[in-house]
Design brief:
It contains eleven helices and eleven strands. The protein is of the alpha/beta class. The structure holds ligand 0PR.
Length: 369
Protein backbone atom coordinates (compact mmCIF):
# COMPACT_ATOMS: atom_id res chain seq x y z
CA UNK A 1 0.00 0.00 0.00
CA UNK A 2 2.79 2.41 0.90
CA UNK A 3 4.25 1.97 -2.53
CA UNK A 4 0.97 2.93 -4.21
CA UNK A 5 0.38 5.89 -1.90
CA UNK A 6 3.99 7.00 -2.35
CA UNK A 7 3.51 7.06 -6.12
CA UNK A 8 0.33 9.08 -5.70
CA UNK A 9 2.05 11.58 -3.42
CA UNK A 10 4.87 11.98 -5.95
CA UNK A 11 2.33 12.81 -8.63
CA UNK A 12 0.38 15.13 -6.32
CA UNK A 13 3.52 17.07 -5.42
CA UNK A 14 4.04 18.04 -9.04
CA UNK A 15 1.02 20.35 -8.71
CA UNK A 16 0.66 23.24 -6.27
CA UNK A 17 -1.03 23.01 -2.87
CA UNK A 18 -3.38 25.65 -1.45
CA UNK A 19 -1.04 25.92 1.52
CA UNK A 20 1.76 27.15 -0.79
CA UNK A 21 -0.30 30.33 -1.12
CA UNK A 22 0.23 30.83 -4.85
CA UNK A 23 -3.20 29.68 -6.02
CA UNK A 24 -5.02 32.96 -6.54
CA UNK A 25 -7.84 32.32 -9.03
CA UNK A 26 -9.50 29.32 -7.46
CA UNK A 27 -12.92 29.58 -5.88
CA UNK A 28 -12.06 26.56 -3.76
CA UNK A 29 -9.69 26.17 -0.84
CA UNK A 30 -8.14 23.53 1.39
CA UNK A 31 -10.93 21.46 2.99
CA UNK A 32 -10.99 21.67 6.79
CA UNK A 33 -9.65 18.73 8.83
CA UNK A 34 -13.03 18.19 10.46
CA UNK A 35 -14.78 17.91 7.08
CA UNK A 36 -12.21 15.41 5.78
CA UNK A 37 -12.57 13.30 8.90
CA UNK A 38 -16.38 13.51 8.64
CA UNK A 39 -16.13 12.38 5.03
CA UNK A 40 -14.05 9.36 6.07
CA UNK A 41 -16.57 8.31 8.74
CA UNK A 42 -19.49 8.27 6.27
CA UNK A 43 -17.59 7.41 3.07
CA UNK A 44 -19.08 3.89 2.82
CA UNK A 45 -22.67 5.09 3.04
CA UNK A 46 -24.80 5.49 -0.09
CA UNK A 47 -27.68 7.85 0.70
CA UNK A 48 -29.72 6.05 -1.93
CA UNK A 49 -29.80 2.97 0.28
CA UNK A 50 -32.18 4.30 2.89
CA UNK A 51 -33.18 0.73 3.76
CA UNK A 52 -29.60 -0.03 4.80
CA UNK A 53 -28.65 3.35 6.28
CA UNK A 54 -31.90 4.95 7.47
CA UNK A 55 -30.14 7.46 9.71
CA UNK A 56 -27.84 9.16 7.24
CA UNK A 57 -30.71 11.21 5.79
CA UNK A 58 -30.95 13.12 9.06
CA UNK A 59 -27.61 14.78 8.41
CA UNK A 60 -28.91 16.15 5.14
CA UNK A 61 -32.06 17.45 6.82
CA UNK A 62 -29.86 19.25 9.35
CA UNK A 63 -27.88 20.86 6.53
CA UNK A 64 -31.06 22.17 4.89
CA UNK A 65 -32.32 23.39 8.30
CA UNK A 66 -29.05 25.25 8.87
CA UNK A 67 -29.37 27.02 5.54
CA UNK A 68 -33.03 27.74 6.30
CA UNK A 69 -31.96 29.46 9.48
CA UNK A 70 -29.43 31.75 7.77
CA UNK A 71 -31.69 32.40 4.76
CA UNK A 72 -34.67 33.68 6.68
CA UNK A 73 -37.29 31.04 6.00
CA UNK A 74 -38.24 27.91 7.88
CA UNK A 75 -38.77 24.63 6.08
CA UNK A 76 -36.80 25.17 2.91
CA UNK A 77 -36.31 21.93 1.06
CA UNK A 78 -33.26 20.83 -0.90
CA UNK A 79 -30.33 18.46 -0.94
CA UNK A 80 -26.55 18.23 -1.11
CA UNK A 81 -25.55 18.12 -4.78
CA UNK A 82 -22.32 17.38 -6.59
CA UNK A 83 -21.84 21.14 -6.99
CA UNK A 84 -23.26 24.24 -8.59
CA UNK A 85 -23.79 22.66 -11.99
CA UNK A 86 -26.13 19.98 -10.67
CA UNK A 87 -27.91 22.51 -8.45
CA UNK A 88 -28.54 24.85 -11.40
CA UNK A 89 -29.82 22.00 -13.57
CA UNK A 90 -32.20 20.89 -10.81
CA UNK A 91 -33.49 24.43 -10.34
CA UNK A 92 -34.41 24.78 -14.00
CA UNK A 93 -35.83 21.30 -14.15
CA UNK A 94 -38.07 22.17 -11.18
CA UNK A 95 -39.04 25.38 -13.00
CA UNK A 96 -40.03 23.41 -16.09
CA UNK A 97 -42.12 21.07 -13.95
CA UNK A 98 -43.81 24.00 -12.23
CA UNK A 99 -44.68 25.81 -15.45
CA UNK A 100 -45.00 23.12 -18.14
CA UNK A 101 -45.39 24.63 -21.58
CA UNK A 102 -43.13 27.62 -21.00
CA UNK A 103 -39.67 27.39 -22.53
CA UNK A 104 -37.90 30.73 -22.35
CA UNK A 105 -35.40 31.65 -19.65
CA UNK A 106 -33.83 35.05 -19.10
CA UNK A 107 -30.16 34.64 -18.29
CA UNK A 108 -27.54 37.41 -17.95
CA UNK A 109 -24.53 37.23 -20.24
CA UNK A 110 -22.32 36.82 -17.17
CA UNK A 111 -24.03 33.60 -15.96
CA UNK A 112 -22.06 30.43 -15.37
CA UNK A 113 -21.98 28.06 -18.33
CA UNK A 114 -23.87 25.43 -16.34
CA UNK A 115 -26.99 27.41 -17.28
CA UNK A 116 -26.20 26.78 -20.96
CA UNK A 117 -25.86 23.10 -20.13
CA UNK A 118 -29.17 23.08 -18.25
CA UNK A 119 -30.93 24.85 -21.12
CA UNK A 120 -29.53 22.42 -23.65
CA UNK A 121 -30.48 19.36 -21.59
CA UNK A 122 -33.97 20.63 -20.75
CA UNK A 123 -34.60 22.05 -24.22
CA UNK A 124 -35.11 25.58 -22.95
CA UNK A 125 -34.41 28.69 -24.93
CA UNK A 126 -32.10 31.30 -23.46
CA UNK A 127 -32.87 34.96 -23.98
CA UNK A 128 -29.59 36.66 -23.06
CA UNK A 129 -29.80 39.69 -20.77
CA UNK A 130 -27.15 42.36 -21.37
CA UNK A 131 -25.05 43.77 -18.54
CA UNK A 132 -25.06 47.35 -17.31
CA UNK A 133 -21.95 49.50 -16.86
CA UNK A 134 -21.18 47.75 -13.57
CA UNK A 135 -21.37 44.32 -15.27
CA UNK A 136 -24.63 43.55 -13.47
CA UNK A 137 -27.68 42.06 -15.19
CA UNK A 138 -29.60 44.96 -16.71
CA UNK A 139 -32.87 45.32 -14.81
CA UNK A 140 -34.73 47.22 -17.56
CA UNK A 141 -33.94 44.44 -20.05
CA UNK A 142 -35.31 41.86 -17.64
CA UNK A 143 -38.45 43.92 -17.15
CA UNK A 144 -38.92 44.25 -20.91
CA UNK A 145 -38.01 40.62 -21.47
CA UNK A 146 -40.56 39.02 -19.15
CA UNK A 147 -43.62 37.78 -21.04
CA UNK A 148 -46.21 34.97 -20.96
CA UNK A 149 -43.56 32.75 -22.52
CA UNK A 150 -41.08 33.30 -19.71
CA UNK A 151 -40.37 30.26 -17.64
CA UNK A 152 -37.60 31.59 -15.41
CA UNK A 153 -35.25 34.43 -14.58
CA UNK A 154 -31.79 33.52 -13.33
CA UNK A 155 -29.40 35.87 -11.54
CA UNK A 156 -25.96 35.30 -10.04
CA UNK A 157 -24.50 36.24 -6.68
CA UNK A 158 -20.78 36.18 -7.43
CA UNK A 159 -20.24 35.74 -11.18
CA UNK A 160 -17.48 33.37 -12.20
CA UNK A 161 -15.34 35.87 -14.14
CA UNK A 162 -15.68 39.08 -12.11
CA UNK A 163 -17.39 38.29 -8.81
CA UNK A 164 -20.35 40.56 -9.60
CA UNK A 165 -23.49 40.36 -7.47
CA UNK A 166 -26.59 40.91 -9.63
CA UNK A 167 -29.48 43.18 -8.48
CA UNK A 168 -31.42 40.41 -6.77
CA UNK A 169 -33.74 42.51 -4.60
CA UNK A 170 -34.79 44.68 -7.53
CA UNK A 171 -35.42 41.76 -9.87
CA UNK A 172 -37.29 39.87 -7.13
CA UNK A 173 -39.97 42.53 -7.52
CA UNK A 174 -40.40 41.62 -11.20
CA UNK A 175 -40.69 37.86 -10.79
CA UNK A 176 -44.21 37.37 -9.40
CA UNK A 177 -45.38 35.10 -12.21
CA UNK A 178 -42.13 33.50 -13.28
CA UNK A 179 -39.69 31.14 -11.61
CA UNK A 180 -36.79 33.04 -10.02
CA UNK A 181 -33.53 31.16 -9.47
CA UNK A 182 -30.46 32.69 -7.82
CA UNK A 183 -27.11 31.07 -8.52
CA UNK A 184 -25.22 31.92 -5.34
CA UNK A 185 -22.73 29.08 -5.85
CA UNK A 186 -19.88 31.31 -4.70
CA UNK A 187 -21.37 34.21 -2.71
CA UNK A 188 -24.00 32.10 -0.97
CA UNK A 189 -21.55 31.54 1.83
CA UNK A 190 -20.30 35.15 1.79
CA UNK A 191 -23.25 37.57 1.52
CA UNK A 192 -25.26 36.27 4.52
CA UNK A 193 -22.29 37.15 6.75
CA UNK A 194 -21.72 40.70 5.47
CA UNK A 195 -23.48 43.90 6.45
CA UNK A 196 -25.39 46.00 3.90
CA UNK A 197 -24.87 43.46 1.16
CA UNK A 198 -27.28 42.39 -1.56
CA UNK A 199 -29.90 40.05 -0.07
CA UNK A 200 -30.18 36.43 -1.12
CA UNK A 201 -32.56 35.30 1.61
CA UNK A 202 -35.98 33.75 1.04
CA UNK A 203 -37.60 36.80 2.65
CA UNK A 204 -37.43 37.97 -0.98
CA UNK A 205 -40.73 36.33 -1.64
CA UNK A 206 -40.32 35.52 -5.31
CA UNK A 207 -37.08 33.55 -5.00
CA UNK A 208 -38.00 29.95 -5.83
CA UNK A 209 -34.58 28.35 -5.60
CA UNK A 210 -30.99 29.06 -4.68
CA UNK A 211 -27.69 27.36 -5.44
CA UNK A 212 -25.01 27.44 -2.72
CA UNK A 213 -21.72 25.55 -2.93
CA UNK A 214 -20.13 24.60 0.39
CA UNK A 215 -17.07 23.39 -1.58
CA UNK A 216 -16.28 27.03 -2.32
CA UNK A 217 -16.47 29.34 0.75
CA UNK A 218 -17.63 26.48 3.02
CA UNK A 219 -14.23 24.72 2.88
CA UNK A 220 -15.62 21.23 2.32
CA UNK A 221 -14.08 18.65 -0.01
CA UNK A 222 -15.16 18.73 -3.66
CA UNK A 223 -17.84 17.79 -4.68
CA UNK A 224 -20.35 19.28 -2.28
CA UNK A 225 -22.91 21.78 -3.46
CA UNK A 226 -26.46 22.46 -2.39
CA UNK A 227 -29.80 23.25 -4.02
CA UNK A 228 -32.45 24.95 -1.89
CA UNK A 229 -36.12 25.34 -2.78
CA UNK A 230 -38.71 27.58 -1.15
CA UNK A 231 -40.86 24.61 -0.05
CA UNK A 232 -41.25 20.90 -0.56
CA UNK A 233 -43.53 21.15 -3.59
CA UNK A 234 -40.57 21.67 -5.94
CA UNK A 235 -38.71 18.48 -5.11
CA UNK A 236 -41.97 16.51 -5.16
CA UNK A 237 -42.21 17.26 -8.87
CA UNK A 238 -38.69 15.91 -9.41
CA UNK A 239 -39.30 12.52 -7.83
CA UNK A 240 -38.75 9.24 -9.61
CA UNK A 241 -39.46 5.89 -8.03
CA UNK A 242 -37.58 2.69 -8.78
CA UNK A 243 -39.64 -0.47 -8.18
CA UNK A 244 -37.05 -1.94 -5.81
CA UNK A 245 -36.78 1.02 -3.39
CA UNK A 246 -39.25 2.22 -0.79
CA UNK A 247 -39.04 5.92 -1.50
CA UNK A 248 -39.09 8.04 -4.64
CA UNK A 249 -35.90 10.08 -5.19
CA UNK A 250 -35.72 13.73 -6.26
CA UNK A 251 -31.95 13.89 -6.94
CA UNK A 252 -30.27 14.13 -10.34
CA UNK A 253 -27.57 11.61 -9.52
CA UNK A 254 -28.50 8.17 -8.20
CA UNK A 255 -25.86 6.99 -5.77
CA UNK A 256 -24.65 9.74 -3.48
CA UNK A 257 -21.96 9.47 -0.89
CA UNK A 258 -23.12 10.41 2.60
CA UNK A 259 -19.46 11.28 3.11
CA UNK A 260 -19.93 14.63 1.42
CA UNK A 261 -23.14 15.32 3.33
CA UNK A 262 -21.31 14.52 6.56
CA UNK A 263 -18.46 16.81 5.48
CA UNK A 264 -20.85 19.73 4.93
CA UNK A 265 -22.69 18.96 8.17
CA UNK A 266 -19.43 18.86 10.11
CA UNK A 267 -18.28 22.28 8.88
CA UNK A 268 -21.65 23.90 9.53
CA UNK A 269 -21.71 22.53 13.08
CA UNK A 270 -18.02 23.09 13.79
CA UNK A 271 -17.66 26.67 12.54
CA UNK A 272 -21.25 27.81 13.01
CA UNK A 273 -22.55 31.18 11.86
CA UNK A 274 -19.95 33.08 13.90
CA UNK A 275 -17.06 30.99 12.58
CA UNK A 276 -18.11 31.59 8.97
CA UNK A 277 -18.73 35.26 9.64
CA UNK A 278 -15.28 35.85 11.06
CA UNK A 279 -13.60 34.00 8.17
CA UNK A 280 -15.60 36.01 5.62
CA UNK A 281 -14.68 39.26 7.39
CA UNK A 282 -11.02 38.29 7.37
CA UNK A 283 -11.22 37.55 3.62
CA UNK A 284 -12.93 40.93 3.06
CA UNK A 285 -10.26 42.75 5.08
CA UNK A 286 -7.61 41.04 2.99
CA UNK A 287 -9.51 42.04 -0.15
CA UNK A 288 -9.41 45.70 0.95
CA UNK A 289 -5.72 45.27 1.80
CA UNK A 290 -5.10 44.00 -1.76
CA UNK A 291 -6.98 46.98 -3.21
CA UNK A 292 -4.86 49.38 -1.17
CA UNK A 293 -1.65 47.70 -2.37
CA UNK A 294 -2.86 47.93 -5.97
CA UNK A 295 -3.19 51.70 -5.72
CA UNK A 296 0.61 51.75 -5.93
CA UNK A 297 0.73 49.84 -9.22
CA UNK A 298 0.37 52.02 -12.28
CA UNK A 299 -1.69 50.83 -15.24
CA UNK A 300 -3.71 48.17 -13.40
CA UNK A 301 -7.22 48.63 -12.09
CA UNK A 302 -10.09 46.55 -10.74
CA UNK A 303 -12.82 46.00 -13.34
CA UNK A 304 -15.49 46.60 -10.70
CA UNK A 305 -15.51 47.78 -7.12
CA UNK A 306 -15.58 44.43 -5.27
CA UNK A 307 -18.64 43.60 -3.16
CA UNK A 308 -17.21 40.24 -2.16
CA UNK A 309 -13.73 38.73 -1.73
CA UNK A 310 -13.09 38.66 -5.46
CA UNK A 311 -10.96 41.16 -7.38
CA UNK A 312 -10.76 41.17 -11.19
CA UNK A 313 -7.77 43.17 -12.38
CA UNK A 314 -7.45 44.61 -15.83
CA UNK A 315 -4.76 46.37 -17.82
CA UNK A 316 -4.06 46.91 -21.54
CA UNK A 317 -1.04 44.66 -21.18
CA UNK A 318 -2.77 42.03 -19.03
CA UNK A 319 -2.41 39.12 -21.50
CA UNK A 320 1.42 39.55 -21.50
CA UNK A 321 1.59 40.28 -17.76
CA UNK A 322 -0.54 37.21 -17.10
CA UNK A 323 1.99 35.08 -19.01
CA UNK A 324 4.87 36.52 -16.96
CA UNK A 325 3.02 35.91 -13.68
CA UNK A 326 2.41 32.29 -14.63
CA UNK A 327 6.16 31.93 -15.30
CA UNK A 328 6.75 33.17 -11.74
CA UNK A 329 4.59 30.36 -10.38
CA UNK A 330 1.31 32.19 -9.70
CA UNK A 331 -1.79 30.11 -10.44
CA UNK A 332 -4.12 32.52 -12.21
CA UNK A 333 -6.80 32.55 -14.86
CA UNK A 334 -7.39 35.23 -17.49
CA UNK A 335 -10.86 36.36 -18.56
CA UNK A 336 -10.46 37.14 -22.24
CA UNK A 337 -13.62 39.23 -22.47
CA UNK A 338 -12.53 41.83 -19.92
CA UNK A 339 -8.76 41.20 -20.18
CA UNK A 340 -8.68 40.60 -16.46
CA UNK A 341 -7.11 38.20 -14.03
CA UNK A 342 -9.09 37.26 -10.99
CA UNK A 343 -7.81 37.12 -7.47
CA UNK A 344 -10.24 35.26 -5.24
CA UNK A 345 -9.20 36.16 -1.72
CA UNK A 346 -9.94 32.75 -0.22
CA UNK A 347 -8.97 31.77 3.34
CA UNK A 348 -5.63 30.37 2.07
CA UNK A 349 -4.65 33.75 0.54
CA UNK A 350 -2.76 35.61 3.27
CA UNK A 351 -1.56 39.22 3.41
CA UNK A 352 2.05 38.07 2.91
CA UNK A 353 1.02 36.24 -0.25
CA UNK A 354 -0.82 39.34 -1.50
CA UNK A 355 2.25 41.51 -0.85
CA UNK A 356 4.48 39.08 -2.77
CA UNK A 357 1.96 38.95 -5.58
CA UNK A 358 1.61 42.72 -5.91
CA UNK A 359 5.42 43.04 -5.88
CA UNK A 360 5.65 40.56 -8.76
CA UNK A 361 2.75 42.23 -10.57
CA UNK A 362 4.53 45.61 -10.37
CA UNK A 363 7.78 44.14 -11.72
CA UNK A 364 5.98 42.35 -14.55
CA UNK A 365 4.05 45.52 -15.48
CA UNK A 366 7.29 47.54 -15.51
CA UNK A 367 9.02 44.99 -17.73
CA UNK A 368 6.48 45.51 -20.54
CA UNK A 369 7.78 48.20 -22.92
N1 LIG B 1 -22.27 28.90 -10.64
C1 LIG B 1 -21.26 29.75 -10.44
C2 LIG B 1 -21.56 31.18 -10.22
C3 LIG B 1 -19.94 29.28 -10.40
O1 LIG B 1 -18.93 30.13 -10.19
C4 LIG B 1 -19.71 27.90 -10.61
C5 LIG B 1 -18.33 27.34 -10.61
C6 LIG B 1 -20.80 27.06 -10.84
C7 LIG B 1 -22.07 27.58 -10.85
C8 LIG B 1 -20.63 25.61 -11.09
O2 LIG B 1 -20.22 24.98 -9.94
P1 LIG B 1 -19.52 23.56 -9.96
O3 LIG B 1 -18.18 23.76 -10.61
O4 LIG B 1 -19.46 23.20 -8.53
O5 LIG B 1 -20.40 22.64 -10.74
N2 LIG B 1 -17.37 28.30 -10.81
C9 LIG B 1 -16.04 28.09 -11.29
C10 LIG B 1 -16.04 27.82 -12.78
O6 LIG B 1 -16.08 28.79 -13.51
C11 LIG B 1 -15.30 27.03 -10.64
C12 LIG B 1 -13.85 27.25 -10.65
C13 LIG B 1 -13.09 26.51 -9.83
C14 LIG B 1 -13.24 28.14 -11.50
C15 LIG B 1 -11.72 26.68 -9.82
C16 LIG B 1 -11.86 28.31 -11.50
C17 LIG B 1 -11.11 27.59 -10.67
O7 LIG B 1 -9.76 27.76 -10.67
O8 LIG B 1 -16.03 26.68 -13.22
Amino acid sequence: MNDVLGRLMELRKKDPFFADGRILSSVCTEPSDVSLEAYRIFSDVNVLDRYVFPNSGELEMDVIKWFSSILGKKNLSGYVTSGGTEANIQALWAAKKKYPGRREILVPESAHYSLDKAADLLELEIKWIPLDEKFKADVASIQEGISDETLAVVLTAGTSALGVVDPITEVNGLCGDVFFHVDAAFAGMVLPFLENSERIDFGLVNIDSLTIDPHKMGYTPIPSGCILFRDESYMKRLRFKPSYLEEPLPTLTGSRSAGFIAAVWANLMFYGVEGFRSKVWECMENTRFLLSLLEGVEGVEPVIEPEINFVALTSDSMPQVYGLLLERGWALSLDRETNSIRIVVMPHVSREVLEDFVGDLRECMNSIP
